[in-house]
Amino acid sequence: MKTPELSACHELETLLPAYVERSLPAAEAQRVAAHLPTCLSCQLQVTQLRALTDDLDAALPEVPRTALRANFMALLEQEKQLLKPAVAPAAPVQPEAKEAKMVSMWPTALANGWMRIAASIVLIAAGVLLGRNLSWKDGESSSVATNAKPAPAELAQSMRQASASDRIQLVSNTSKQTEPGDPTVQVLLNTLNFDASPNVRLAACEALYRLREDPQVREGLVHSLSIQTDPNVQITLIDMVVAMRVRRAVPQLEKLSKRADALPVVRAQAEAGIGKLI
């Protein structure tokens, strides 16, 4: 049986996302403010939520320009047409969210505050990633862009010397020229595990998903679950192993669902992933 203090804490917990967003009515905001000094658990969750909000604010200036978004939607439409049977459509098909997602397993709980905030950050990060990957189509070619696929050693050297935005472009361009079984796959896995930038690691996730038929990709994603600390990358990896039906990821997901340093939204996503794989 829950004590009155625990019951009050559980009730106020659902208000924390709106409290951080400053969207609570004044009376409820005062209740939360009065509760926080007496509850370390709620203080920690508020700190984590504010960190997520700061990540979102930091990403907003990098949202792709209108021209880049238009380029992306045009490419997306081309990909959708390639996936359809060779029959002329009766009418233009509008882009739908479920077709546009590379990996989409958000649980129903997305409606609550935790999931909305985390999902927003992931989507913003994806927008930044797509905008940068498409920048070369908008006349902004980077000095590291090249038509020839570099050898694995050359790619690794370039990754160490390039800026974060250039590393994203290198990962994207290289993955499009790489086939499963290529030694370059290991460079992409190293980038996923050790690159300092979460955006570059997200780009590596996207690249490795294209190469998911390579057996070492599945093993690499499972291993990476145990070492990632960025919530966006953690959630992306969870969705990827679930989409790829990598059942041997279940033990790592169980560990992640119990990690004290993982955000509640990440632990919830790991638990949801376990349910889909077992």
Automatic annotation (TrEMBL):
Gene3D superfamilies: Anti-sigma factor, zinc-finger domain, Leucine-rich Repeat Variant. InterPro entries: Anti_sigma_zinc_sf (IPR041916), ARM-like (IPR011989), ARM-type_fold (IPR016024), Znf_put (IPR027383). It comes from Hymenobacter ruricola. This is HEAT repeat domain-containing protein. Pfam families: HEAT_2, zf-HC2. It comes from the Bacteria. SUPFAM superfamilies: ARM repeat. Residues 9-43 form the Putative zinc-finger domain.
